[in-house]
């Protein structure tokens, strides 16, 4: 493979400080390096959160070994060939050579991955313990599934064997579609435990979890068939073959994230173009953009501030404003909010911070990045006993630049399956947390716009009818409930989504509801055919004549694993490029006033870039 990429590591002053006696858990530190093309790279340490992978490594090797074995690498480079070369050759650091292992979905966006000091056969076996990932197709689905073992979760709950059960999925005819793909049930008791764990003022309707070989979401179900059970997992949630029965953490339910009120929805470039193609007037976007700018410009006025704080759910500052008035402290906080909103208008690739899938860990990383500002090269060479999150935005104008238009009548929420079976195809239940003035307006809404981002085709945009006043769903807030009936799941119609952790932009703004509704993307028919073909193959493999196929030799298996591993590396290196083409089509939005942007003739920019083939959610 040639000479590896070299990373320096100071011999002195690099060991992270030992945890204090009052810490409940001993933190896990690993090597961390930021690579900028061919510049000399210096490794330091970073603390990593719990994950399925970390649980497995700690149970088999211990903290000290993981400390030496793992490395977190982030690339601040747009050269996909350079990234591919480094990961294929490996990284040499102080006598150890590290090879690419994988990354979570959030790390994929930030060009960050885990590398491990092990032979290729050893880390193949590490992944093989969780499942036969290299047999999963398409490639994006494979990397997405692998990414779940790297997804961090900071909070855990204990779940005994008697507390859960596994139930069947709800499928369409011939099993072509799974309506409950990745979505199980939780009891009100478990929801209350999560509320207590996070010290929340409400019990969440949905939690995203990792437990044994299960991953996905659990939606609150008040009519659990067995009231002694806290959780019911679907068979589709069993993403991994790996089960940690022999590990002490084996009964730990990892809480990745949960449904939250005021998970605000912002319009971005791609959403605007898709809705324009669907018939939403360009003038309406120009109006709400102007209104947003006017609101931010006058944020230090009490009337404007009250509205903004109320619609964004900033309850503490809103209460202080009502009781104290415009004091100097409150004026300063409002000024800081004004600066932050202005900066975020075109600060990043993702229009909405709430669309990150992995919860508190990523939000804390972003917060530390904002406080730290630009990375200091000199600081990377010093010892750091605290968490280290590197700057994640690459310097590519086609990727980084975007704008955000605040939409008070929109949220970004988890999609879940219907627990009560009362919804018909074309309906949904959606109950966002609102103050009284906004809730009165919402009560008049009849339809909602639903988009899973990123979407690159106008037929990925759907409109559903709101089912108001259903008593059974009264506790399901801040999520969108899709029906478990019909020809196919609505989640899948939204750019190939699922109800196992994907989030959806949902708006009840009547001005954003498209003037016409197109039929689902024609590729759904192709997907259905593919699923039926897979079912046929599965049945044929049960026949004796197909079972007697000669097994592959050891050499052939190694070649297959190596080829599949290289494909994942190339997917990692090229991931940003998959979106660059589509973003290049809409770059005119960055330099052209919104009201003068011409109507897009066809928003099918690149179906291969669509999230049907992408792990970005």
Structural class: alpha/beta
Question: How many helical stretches?
Answer: 20
Q: Estimate the helix proportion, in percent.
A: 25-40%
Strand order of the biggest β-sheet: 3-1-6-7-8-5-2-4
Topology:
Elements: E1 5-8, E2 28-35, E3 41-42, E4 44-48, H1 52-60, H2 63-69, E5 70-75, H3 80-89, E6 91-93, E7 96-102, H4 105-109, E8 112-116, H5 120-130, H6 139-147, E9 155-158, E10 164-167, E11 183-186, H7 188-198, E12 206-211, E13 214-220, E14 231-234, E15 252-258, E16 264-267, H8 269-277, H9 282-297, H10 302-312, H11 315-324, H12 328-344, H13 360-372, H14 397-400, E17 405-417, E18 427-430, H15 436-442, E19 447-451, E20 462-466, E21 479-482, H16 490-493, E22 503-507, H17 523-541, H18 544-547, H19 554-585, H20 588-591
Parallel strand pairs: 1-3, 1-6, 2-5, 10-14, 11-13, 17-21, 18-20
Antiparallel strand pairs: 2-4, 5-8, 6-7, 7-8, 9-15, 11-14, 12-13, 12-15, 16-17, 17-22, 18-21, 19-20, 19-22
Helix pairs in contact: 3-19, 10-11
């Amino acid at each position: 493979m040639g000479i590896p990429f070299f990373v320096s590591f100071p011999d002195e002053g690099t060991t992270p400080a030992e945890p204090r006696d009052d810490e409940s858990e001993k933190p896990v530190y690993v090597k961390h390096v930021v690579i900028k093309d061919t510049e000399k790279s210096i490794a330091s340490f970073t603390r990593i959160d719990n994950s399925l992978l970390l649980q497995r490594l700690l149970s088999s090797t211990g903290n000290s070994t993981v400390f030496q074995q793992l490395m977190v690498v982030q690339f601040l480079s747009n050269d996909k060939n350079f990234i591919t070369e480094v990961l294929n050759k490996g990284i040499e650091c102080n006598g150890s050579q590290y090879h690419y292992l994988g990354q979570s979905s959030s790390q994929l966006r930030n060009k960050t991955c885990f590398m491990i000091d092990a032979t290729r056969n050893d880390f193949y076996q590490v992944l093989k313990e969780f499942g036969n990932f290299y047999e999963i197709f398409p490639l994006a689905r494979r990397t997405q599934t692998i990414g779940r073992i790297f997804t961090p979760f900071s909070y855990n709950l204990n779940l005994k064997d008697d507390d859960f059960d596994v139930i069947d999925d709800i499928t369409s005819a011939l099993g072509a579609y799974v309506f409950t793909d990745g979505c199980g049930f939780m009891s009100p008791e478990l929801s209350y435990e999560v509320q207590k764990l996070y010290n929340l003022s409400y019990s969440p309707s949905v939690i995203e979890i990792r437990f044994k070989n299960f991953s996905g979401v659990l939606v609150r179900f008040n009519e659990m068939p067995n009231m002694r059970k806290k959780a019911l997992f679907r068979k589709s949630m069993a993403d991994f073959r790996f089960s940690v029965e022999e590990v002490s953490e084996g009964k730990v339910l990892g809480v990745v994230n949960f449904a939250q009120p005021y998970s605000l929805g912002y319009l971005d470039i791609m959403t605007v173009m898709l809705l324009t193609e669907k018939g939403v007037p360009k003038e309406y976007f120009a109006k709400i953009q102007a209104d947003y700018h006017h609101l931010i410009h006058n944020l230090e006025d009490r009337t404007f501030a009250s509205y903004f704080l109320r619609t964004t759910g900033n309850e503490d500052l809103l209460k202080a404003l009502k009781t104290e008035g415009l004091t100097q402290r409150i004026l300063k906080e409002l000024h800081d909010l004004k600066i932050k909103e202005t900066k975020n208008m075109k600060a990043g690739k993702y229009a909405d911070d709430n669309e990150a899938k992995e919860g508190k860990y990523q939000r804390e990383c972003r917060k530390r990045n904002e406080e730290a500002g630009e990375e200091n090269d000199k600081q990377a060479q010093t010892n750091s006993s605290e968490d280290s999150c590197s700057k994640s935005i690459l310097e590519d104008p086609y990727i980084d630049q975007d704008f955000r238009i605040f939409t008070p009548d929109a949220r970004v929420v988890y999609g879940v399956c219907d627990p009560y079976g009362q919804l018909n195809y074309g309906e949904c239940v959606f109950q966002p947390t609102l103050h009284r003035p906004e809730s009165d307006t919402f009560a008049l809404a009849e339809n909602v716009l639903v988009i899973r981002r990123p979407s690159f085709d106008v037929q990925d945009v759907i409109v559903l009818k709101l089912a108001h006043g259903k008593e059974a769903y009264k506790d399901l807030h801040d999520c969108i409930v899709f029906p478990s009936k019909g020809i196919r799941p609505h989640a899948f119609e939204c750019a190939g989504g699922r109800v196992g952790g994907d989030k959806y932009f949902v708006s009840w703004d009547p001005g954003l509801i498209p003037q016409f509704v197109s039929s689902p993307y024609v590729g759904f028919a192709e997907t259905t055919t593919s699923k039926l073909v897979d079912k046929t193959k599965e049945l044929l493999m049960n026949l004796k004549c197909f079972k007697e196929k000669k097994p592959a030799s050891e050499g052939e298996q190694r070649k297959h694993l190596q080829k599949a591993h290289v494909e994942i590396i190339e997917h990692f290196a090229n991931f940003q490029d998959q979106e660059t083409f589509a973003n290049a089509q809409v770059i005119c939005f960055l330099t052209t006033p919104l009201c003068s942007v011409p109507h897009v003739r066809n928003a099918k920019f690149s179906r291969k870039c669509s999230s049907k083939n992408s792990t970005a959610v």
